[in-house]
Amino acid sequence: MPDKVPKTEKSEVGKIRCDACPVLCYIREGQDGACDRYANHAGSLVRVDPHVLLSRALEKDGAIVPFAARADDWDGNLVTAADTFVTAIGAGTTYPDYKPAPFIISSAVEGVDMVTVVTEGIFSYCGVKVKIDTDRHLGHECATVKVRGEPVGHVTTAEYGSQMLSLGGVSHLTGGSKKEGRVTCETLLDLCNGKPVELTIDGGASIGVEAGKAPIVNSVREERMRVGCGSATIGMFAKQWRGKVDEVVVVDDHITGVLSEHQAGKMLGIRETGIQIKGRRSTPGRYFQVASPGTGWGGTNISDPLSILTPFDSKRAWPGLSLLMISTTGEHHAYFELDDQLRPVEHQLPERLTDSVARIAENCEPALSTVMFMAGAGGSLRAGVTENPVRLTRAVKDALTYVTCGGAPAYIWPGGGITLMVDVTEMPANAFGSVPTPALVAPIEFTLRLSDYAALGGHMDHVRPLSALRSDSLPRRALWHKGTLPWPLAVRARANKST
Amino acid sequence: MTMVLERRPPSAATRMHARLLAGGRRLHLQDGPIDLIIEADGPEADRRAAFAAAERRFSGLLDELCAEISLLRQPVGASEPNPRGAVARRMTEACRKLAADRFITPMAAVAGAVAEEVLAAMLAEVALERAFVNNGGDIAFHLAPDAAYKIGMIDRPDQPALFGQLRIGYNDPVRGVATSGWRGRSFSLGIADAVTVLARNAAGADATATLIANEVDLPGHGAIARVPARELNPDSDLQGRLVTRAVGPLSPGEIRVALGHGAQYAEQLLHTGLIVAAALHLQGKTRLVGAGPLSVGVEEKPVHVSC
């Protein structure tokens, strides 16, 4: 009597059966079981429990440990303490925070006794800074950014080749209407958890933003970030144009560059062409405000590059003069020659210039939206770490304490409080949550030497060894640490050793 | 003849998790898809005895249910045999009164029935001042004379925001609260974000909340995405019935109409005494049905928990 595995189970494409409990769910690919604790991830059964441990494995960046290695099996890893870091994701919180943080874990790392205090912070002072790599005009500085009609932030100071948005913060979360707060909270949560969000800017563009992905401006995917401003582009490529074209104009909403007038052109002995540009001349060959900001050539509102020129100076220009006009990404370009009346007439781009046009595009980096979570952990959260909160702040400032969010390094602002910034794409997926206040819940871990922890008034009687996690009943998920990031436990351990 | 080999699922004892929360004030029990949060008020020894009783009753409860699962996934009708398990009987009992004019399987009351059963086991062991068993938002509770509970009500199960609180006292005829909606963990045939029902017991609240939430609907509306339940969960008791996956923005008129459908059915349940009150939510609008604690006790007060 041959043993046979029932065929039906195998032939049901994409479905697997979970045997973790008697419900014996059939789970389709991409779906969770009835318990939300197990899921079918690309055909294998995985635990999707909330409390996340990072395991250090340089080769296995971001992979989820398959359920085949059962909880009991990988729990054994906890013994090799140095290779397991407990994140605060799903750790819970202990608000009000006079109670010790949910997990205070000790481990010996490279011969140094370390402690990591793990908690989920409830941040009402929080938001995201969004950097959108585009020269296109998204909206005026200070213009309101909206989601589903609710104000969630504003356009802030532009950076080199990027437009910046500042979203969230207390005045939108709790200072406006209930709906404004809810929509702001949802927007922050989605952006931080790497989900796409549609933003509209008053008097400006609508933008699809997703952390680490290309921005979508007015339904068009932004491919490239500009190589530099128009003037910088002239500077970079002037030599490659010499002898191949008489004049080059790099159209840029910020600074439009003109080869023959630019310092770089002068140095190369490029002849004056009598070209005349609209806009405000800054220094020779550099022009501000050649048009209005927009989503056309080089972040201006123009689609016809000739519209930024006035007639050529007949004393200097000559029939047959060749002119290349190009945007800062190389996305737009056009080639002209002057006719007998010194009017520019468009021609096909000559062979000799195709390389320089391609090189501008080649030197552009891919355009991305990046999302930095920013929050202040200076409040009562600190009391969950120590009975003497200000000492934690000082320990962070003195670099005795290393701060991470879900294992990702956090930048701490100088000055008072613990104001941190972290790149959400460096954190494990879905690391953020929210509470109805509304406020965001974000993981935060403080790692320091055990002796330093005692000195700053830490909750020493709540310190548990890493191995103790095996015996509590909390479900956990192991993730592989991103090999490109510093290993959180090693940062302080190494620093401690050298002192 | 072929033999079917199956790996035996782990036993209840090895599967089940029990731990104390909130400094020993609450007990968390988990087995498979069931998560219970239990609180009991009384002298320390009584509370401990109640928690122990809850844990004993909970152990193996899921196996009992699963032993009759195919029966419990069938629509309730006169001809079906009565299930054997105590929880299963509570489920069937709660649904039978509703089956005359609606599709319903006992699974519609499973969460409430489990909560009720565990609470009953605690009270059989020891007298308590107050106690509740919260099974993922479906709550069975007990009140001694003069005792009361304050219950926060949420407008969306996936992003819980309290929209109000209500106080239930010993004299109120309510011992069960349940919430249902398409955003929650179970599938819904309707579009309500949440329907919260107060009823005499938790199984009844669970079943009626499910049916009222099904009723809040705009059949054929283009902004509603629906999928056959079995495409999402091959085992679903709803089989090929279309369950709601997404609801686009609706006009104020449409919201009123959809809530009206639900409210009409809720009124019917109110008159037959199957519910005490209900709050229906759809895209920021609320409709209340029933007098008593719900309408009286609602306080429009957001609860702040920030640092």
Characterize this entry briefly.
The complex is a heterodimer of chains A (499) and B (307). By secondary structure, chain A is of the alpha+beta class.
Helix count of chain B equals 10
Q: What's the CATH H-level superfamily name of chain B?
A: ApbE-like domains
Unreliable sequence segments of chain A: 1-11, 56-82
In this structure, how is the largest beta sheet of chain B organized? 9 strands, antiparallel
Q: Share of helix among residues of chain A?
A: 10-25%
Count all strands of chain A and give the number: 35
Number of strands of chain B: 14
Low-confidence stretches of chain B: 1-8, 293-307
Tally of domains of chain B: 1
Across the major sheet of chain B, the strand order is 2-3-4-5-6-9-10-13-14
- Indicate the radius of gyration of chain A in whole angstroms: 29 Å
Mean pLDDT of chain B: 82
Q: What overall geometry of chain A do the principal axes of the alpha carbons give?
A: elongated
Q: What is the ordering of alpha helices and beta strands of chain B?
A: EHEEEHHHHHEEEEEEHEHEHEEH
Instruction: Using a beta-carbon cutoff below 8 angstroms, give the protein chain pair with the largest interface and the number of residues from each chain.
Output: A-B, 46 and 40 residues
Percent of residues in β-strands of chain B:
25-35%
Assembly status:
heterodimer
Number of distinct helices of chain A: 10
At CATH level 3, the topology of chain B is T-fold
**CATH classification class of chain B:** Alpha Beta
Q: How many whole angstroms does the radius of gyration of chain B measure?
A: 19 Å
What does this molecule look like?
The complex is a heterodimer of chains A (499) and B (307). Chain A is of the alpha+beta class. Among the domains of chain A are: 48 residues, no CATH class; 133 residues, no CATH class. Chain A is built from 10 helices and 35 strands. In chain A, strands 17-16-15-14-11-12-13-10-27-31-30 form an 11-stranded antiparallel beta sheet. In chain A, a hairpin with a 6-residue loop joins strand 30 and strand 31. Chain A starts with a strand and ends with a helix. The N terminus of chain A is likely disordered. Chain B has 307 residues and is an alpha+beta fold. Chain B has one domain: Roll (T-fold). Helix content of chain B is 33%, strand content 26%. Chain B is built from 10 helices and 14 strands. Chain B has a 9-stranded antiparallel beta sheet. Chain B has a two-stranded antiparallel sheet with strand order 7-8. A two-stranded antiparallel sheet of chain B has the order 11-12. In chain B, helix 2 packs across helix 6 and helix 7 packs antiparallel against helix 9. The interface between A and B is large, with 46 and 40 residues.
